[in-house]
Amino acid sequence: MRAACYSSFVAAASLPLTSTSSAASDPRRLSLSRSSLRCSPLRRGGGGVARALDERLLEAAAAAPAPAEVEVEDESGVTEVEDGGQWEGEGAEEGVGSSEAEGEQGQRKSKRQQQQQQQEEAAAAERDRFKLINGKEIFQEKTYLVGVECKRAGGYDFSIEESLKELEQLADTAGLMVVGSTYQKLSNPNPRTYIGSGKVGEIRTAIQALDVETVIFDDELSAGQLRNLEKSFGGSVRVCDRTALILDIFNQRAATHEADLQVTLAQMEYQLPRLTKMWTHLERQSGGQVKGMGEKQIEVDKRILRTQISTLRKELESVRKHRKLYRNRRQSVPIPVVSLVGYTNAGKSTLLNRLTGADVLAEDKLFATLDPTTRRVLMKSGTEFLLTDTVGFIQKLPTMLVAAFRATLEEISESSIIVHLVDISHPLAQQQIDAVDKVLKELDIESIPKLVVWNKIDNTDDPLRVKEEAEKQGTICISAMNGDGLEEFCYAIQTKLKDSMVPIEAFVPYDKGELLNDIHKVGMVEKMEYMENGTFVKAHVPLPLARLLTPLRQQVAAAL
Ligand SMILES: Nc1nc2c(ncn2[C@@H]2O[C@H](COP(=O)(O)OP(=O)(O)OP(=O)(O)O)[C@@H](O)[C@H]2O)c(=O)[nH]1
Ligand SMILES: [Mg+2]
């Protein structure tokens, strides 16, 4: 029953398409237009991994005994009572017979009551699995996690246990209920099933014992591996991988048009290579007589998907152009931009909120922020800078997501300073730093000055010792939560900004007073002298403003 309902869900939901069950090859799914996919209430209700409320309710209703059957049972109960009434009369004569009948009847009754109670409890437990996440109702599917530790070149620094722990956090963010996990050490992944056959059997047993509905692998699986695993685990269990899970979280959290476009594009790109051989059932249905039918259907689907991908790319391009235009307009007032980057959950949004009084969602979930938010920060010195909050990074970040979010991250490449915020209280802080540096390298922005800042100092066991260590490394410690170290943070930004500015001396006539304002706002004034026809100013200013001031810089010698 679940498999049947799930078919219709996958067909209606968008293209996270983590499943390769026969349902996943439903032709209707691919013929859906993207706009209809985006508007689908099922997609709104949680995307591919977490199922929508309506679907689950239908399913739960179907799984529960039909009301008509309950009535029949009740009717039979009533008949028995009536019979019992007759027996009662007879029993009054026989005495013992009556109490025996009553006992039997009572036993039957209590058994029925017990069954009813069990059913009610099961229904209540089922209802409890509907959770409200980000204002969306999500059904907490029972999920089992699987990891593989491989000896591979350029491996990640996260151990398999740590990586699985993070996968559990991701599953929790997606609204899933993790009921167990396992891992295997392999020299090389099995090309058919990723894990060995013994492990497949072990997981199958766990699926049955724990009533698992979804199995998530910690690494990206091929279409063939997904299909083979799903077959081995039994039709109703869904198998997906870390990438699909991350895409699903992004899908759940995309709140703006641009984020929505980016996530849909990434999902389609993830899906494209996984369409291969999903139509083999057509070959089987046709009894082998209409050869190549499935093959043709894949081609049709791929073509549809490619067309949708290219339409999406064009749409994204136009959004990007618009964003660039906006950025250029913003740059005509050359306020320096400081970008906040860091591992997901490091506290970037909390810091932005704390410094600017913004109202960006900050919560103890992974990928709370998908869209860059920029706010103005006014320092005590009077200097201003723009602070941009960006999407968090994660180890094993799907490459299509990095690519899809490149436009968003372009903001970073045009900033004056990059602040790499680290959750220093996290046991894997160093590994997280390495993962972020890896993505930053991919973005080719190493020439921009970087400031490493340790956050959540309040959450460490020994803040004093951590601060000492930070000092040794030339790093600042802050608590975005309670505001500790924020003055030092602003001072460090100011110093770094100054390093990236040009020292100038200029004579600003009184009728060009607005330029003096700009110097104050975006630069750092060291000396100012009011003279007869204007003001002499010595300052550090950003390059664009220094260029703008060129004629006035040349007048200094004449004025003095
Ligand atoms: N104890 C402590 N908790 C903090 C601090 N800063 C942030 N947090 C908490 O850390 C969690 C994540 O904070 P966010 O600001 O959402 O993190 P983020 O880096 O924006 O995360 P993403 O948007 O997912 O990339 C929230 O529960 C915050 O309350 C801090 O200085 N101390
Ligand atoms: Mg955030």
TrEMBL record:
InterPro entries: G_HFLX_dom (IPR030394), GTP-bd (IPR006073), GTP-bd_M (IPR032305), GTPase_HflX (IPR016496), GTPase_HflX_N (IPR025121), GTPase_HflX_N_sf (IPR042108), P-loop_NTPase (IPR027417), Small_GTP-bd (IPR005225). Residues 18-43, 113-122 have a biased composition (Low complexity). GO terms for cellular component: cytoplasm. Residues 70-93 have a biased composition (Acidic residues). SUPFAM superfamilies: P-loop containing nucleoside triphosphate hydrolases. Residues 336-501 form the Hflx-type G domain. Residues 18-47, 63-127 are annotated as: Disordered. It comes from the Eukaryota. Keywords: Coiled coil, GTP-binding, Magnesium, Metal-binding, Nucleotide-binding. Gene3D superfamilies: 6.10.250.2860, GTPase HflX, N-terminal domain, P-loop containing nucleotide triphosphate hydrolases. Residues 302-329 form a coiled coil. GO terms for molecular function: GTP binding; metal ion binding; mRNA binding; ribosome binding. This is Hflx-type G domain-containing protein. It comes from Brachypodium distachyon. The lineage of its organism: Eukaryota, Viridiplantae, Streptophyta, Embryophyta, Tracheophyta.
